[in-house]
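Researcher: We're teaching a course module on how sequence relates to structure. For the next exercise, students receive a sequence and then see the predicted structure as tokens, so they can try to spot secondary structure elements on their own. Here is the exercise chain.
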Amino acid sequence: MHGGGHGGHGGHGGHGGHGMAPMQMKPQAQSSALLGYDWVDEEAMSVDHAPVAVPTHNLSVPDPKSVFRPTPKDFLTGTLVLKAWKRNVVACVLVGVTSLLLLRLYIDTIWAMIQRGCGWHSALAGWILLFCSVPMFGLMLAKMWTYVVAMDYKVSTDIEHLTKQRMLLNMNMGNAMWMSLIPFAAQCYLYWGPDKDNMLLPYLCTHGPLFLGTHPIMGSALWTCRCLLFGIPLAVLTFVRIRDPKEDAAAEAEQRAKGG
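Model: And here is the predicted structure for the students to work with:
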């Protein structure tokens, strides 16, 4: 009799269980229930609802992974130049003019070093000129590449790498600028200094039609000297002129947060 009563109650419990809607659980929660545990891993139940972190950066350029690297066709057809022109006309003009001036200066300098019109003084003066001015020219081109060209092409592996590249450029700008002032100051002294008893003249041999003791291959020595006088300041100005507004705003906000 008692066994029957208990069976009846068990039947009612079974019917009650059939009336309940089945609960949707994660595999980990289901395995816990089948093994007889009463606890449920809340993290497993709510993992689908966790917010997805979206990476952010302080650069105006797109993610390098979303664009393609420039191809030789982009250079040969002028597509890269046209896109850069649309992005920043002033920077393109400055880079173009500066490149023409300094490339002429470097060609005449290398020619004078080969000819050695003033002996080893020509080679030494030419080496100092190149050693002190080429880094500034290279930094200017690198900044154009990482700031303007990067708006349309992949110039780095990812945003973090591009940020580091920009940081290194800006950190080395000061040293390159001071180095470039050495040949600039020497040329200023030759150009506007006294004609007689000029201390640098015996070593640089730049006077009249001669540049470092040699007739320049690209034209008159006067214009070669002017290329140096105008090219180096333009390289510095171009480097400073190329900027990223979003990057500058982030730097200013960080400075304010530090109490600067």
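Model: If you want an answer key for the exercise: The radius of gyration is 35 Å. The CA atoms of residues 186 and 200 lie 8 Å apart.
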